[in-house]
Amino acid sequence: MAMKPRGNLTYSEPLATGEIAVDAPAEMVYLLVSDPVAMAECAEELRKARWIRGASGPAVGNWFSGSNRNGWRRWVTHAEVTEAEPGRRFAYRVRTPFFVPISRWEYEITPEGEGCRVTVTNWLRVPPWFVPFAIFITGQPDRAGTNRANIASTLQRMKARVEGREWRTLVL
Question: What does pTM read for this prediction?
């Protein structure tokens, strides 16, 4: 699905989502997904993250900075943790360093037997006037398709990591 034209953006429906069953306890999965520094190793565009503004871990109101990459393109984002329920949910909203809203991400963890199911949902929050700049900066005119593919790859790597399998060599 291509990104909707600037005048037809919807902010109530998710832009992209994905889910996966994981053979690991919800608490273990939460420790990874709520740590953006560690998740950067599993992600597609996020290459490096660090806690900022005195934060050192996942708590509502804490901020982290992400260094992102797509080919030769590079950009930085800042994210504020909006939900942090250990073993259950981790969510954050993303903006540019100059305060333009970008997106919201949510990891929902649901226990299933001995393991759990992880659902990732992403909502677009970019103002319509910023869409052309976002496309130029990231090189991605199809943000919905890109995020769906990136979520699938990230979830596969996250699953392998928490299940104790070699995840860096996964061919996706």
Answer: 0.88
